[in-house]
Amino acid sequence: MRRLIVIGGSAPSSFCFDRKLYSHVVAADSGYDSARALSIPVDEIVGDLDSTAFRAEIEAMGFKACSHDKDLSDTELALGRGHGEYDLVGGGEGRLDHTLSLFSTFTRMGYPYYWFMRTDTVASISGHVEVVADEGTELSFFSPEGVSHVHSAGLVWELDSFPLSFTSVSLSNRMSGTHLVLDIDGMVMMRMRPVDFPSIRIERC
């Protein structure tokens, strides 16, 4: 099972929470506000609680604020609660410095398996991947670290060992049918238009 981390920033308007998928749910500061709005039950709340609208409620639950003058961000504190794969909710459409800080954190602490935001759903993928979704589903691809070569079968504009990087991005591609096969040398982040799982299925082999 993966962990679920809910952070501040723009979260999706709905989220289908399945407890069987997650071993532990952590909210970081105003991530609790998003979890509360999305009816996601949390096991732990971390952070300095300077952004949440529910500080008194959180403290009444027995969680205490850490110092505002800390070396780690609230997101880093949340990611530090456990090991292994995790899904991330929130973090989108916020301050640019926070977004850049997130990618710095991913580099050091691992990339999310799935990242759910208001306008985007992102999956971190590598190796052989199969995607089942509606024809015309919009997909963008980029590699946040180094160069990754991608070969596709099932896109309107096929990627033939295309070298993806942070500066070489495949934007607004589309599925030509309902089945897409990707072979990836390296790690790639695949952005999908907001979707409600399981309307799209990703099989990592």
Provide a concise account of the structure shown.
The chain has 205 residues and is α/β, with parallel strands linked by helices. It is built from four helices and twelve strands.
Features of the shown structure:
205 residues; alpha/beta; 4 helices; 16% helix; 35% strand; elongated
Q: Please identify the structural class as seen in this structure.
A: alpha/beta
Biggest sheet record: 12 strands, mixed
Helix count? 4
* Beta-strand share of residues: 25-35%
Describe what this molecule looks like in 3D:
The chain has 205 residues and is an alpha/beta fold. 16% of the residues lie in helices and 35% in strands. It has 4 helices and 12 strands; from the N terminus they run ββαβααβαββββββββ. Strands 1, 2, 3, 4, 5, 6, 7, 8, 9, 10, 11 and 12 form a 12-stranded mixed beta sheet that branches. Helix 4 (96-109) links the parallel strand 4 (86-89) and strand 5. It is elongated. It starts with a strand and ends with a strand.
